[in-house]
From TrEMBL, chain B:
GO function terms (MF aspect): ATP binding; proton-transporting ATP synthase activity, rotational mechanism
Gene3D superfamilies: 3.40.1380.10, ATP synthase, gamma subunit, helix hairpin domain
Keyword Cell membrane: yes
Record gene name: atpG
Record organism: Nonomuraea turkmeniaca
Keywords of this entry: ATP synthesis, Cell membrane, CF(1), Hydrogen ion transport, Ion transport, Membrane, Transport
Localisation per UniProt entry: Cell membrane; Membrane
GO-annotated biological processes: proton motive force-driven plasma membrane ATP synthesis
Membrane topology term: Peripheral membrane protein
A GO term from the CC aspect: plasma membrane
Biological role: Produces ATP from ADP in the presence of a proton gradient across the membrane. The gamma chain is believed to be important in regulating ATPase activity and the flow of protons through the CF(0) complex.
A Pfam cross-reference name: ATP-synt
Chief location bin: membrane
Protein name: ATP synthase gamma chain
Amino acid sequence: MVIAKTVDGEIGIMPQHAPVLGVLVEGGVLRVKREGEGDLVAAVHGGFISVADNEVSVLAEVAELGSEVDVAAARDALDRAQASIEANQEDADAAIEAKRARARLRAAGEEV
Amino acid sequence: MGAQLRLLRRRINSVKSTAKITRAQELIASSRIVRAQQRMQAALPYEREITRAVTGVVSNAASVDHPLTVAKENPAQAGVLIVTSDSGFCGGFNANVLREAEALRGLLESRGLTVLPFVTGRKGVTWHTFRQREMGGSWVGFSRKPAYADAKEIATTLIDSFKEENGIDEIHIVSTEFVSMLTQNVVVKRVLPLEVEETEATEATAIPPYFEFEPTAGDVLESLLPRYVESRIFTALLQSAASEEAARRRAMKSATDNANELMRVLTQQMNQARQAEITQEISEIVGGANALADAAAGKE
């Protein structure tokens, strides 16, 4: 089962799902539940999920597997982004930066 | 005679050092092709999927009217993205692309459109500035190793111009397609507006008859199309990078071969000159000795 977050909300895809094409949110966490193994978790920033012929493809502009996330760097990025948000409320770049950092931390299994 | 010998020796040395440079360039290019090819391969799945997704949306939601899909009724200006290389030493690589771009310009102008070139690669930019052609945009510095961010920047410029009221109405790409190490073709593609092809659905390319969209087909298309254009441009840049190295390898290989051949001919000439010099010296000595002997015989 694949769980992803589209702009409409979370979507869970089971085998034999009808064809879907969805827009993913910035800073989402994608989870692939696998039988017999642990979940495959990835931080996905923007992009699409497409389901067709029992095949799920995720097209992301930037993606990172949870196991590959540098937690310290992500936390650092989050702190910096939050600092610049506090300094300037309308800093859109920092807001996206914070979202991405949070997604990376969540994908790595950290509490945010 | 001595002077000619020295001249030949100097030429051989100069050809030899040129051959060293071209040989080194050839080897560098060969190793870069492999990497460029790998990068090309790595980008393939993304491009395939995004093309599939766009095809899915467009063929399922024929009612969707998006400014990026609809051909304007009276197109006035066409944008042509010309992908060239930053550095030379690659034979006819850039000349081929620019010739094709000129042919496209002629074709578009015969349809009554004005052409606005967008150029990547130092060679193409110089070509256009030398002819004082107006450019809609130019990018240099990444022809050997294009990053996705570069493609994104180009795509943003093109799409912004496309959306403008008096901007461009069509987007074409002229670039070099990498077929194999030996074959690279210059190709012209129209990216926008999308070309709708009526094809027979085969097993492999079949698109499911219906698609659900999250949230709506229009929204999906809105964010999908820029990504699609980016991906097309990125692929063109990667293919062009691989082709550039392949063209450079071939050009440098023939330059090295020519230098070796030249060296062989020059060495032969040099040996001939040396031999002639020795022969002359011998005949001078013999002649001198004979003259001395004659003089001595005359005295007695």
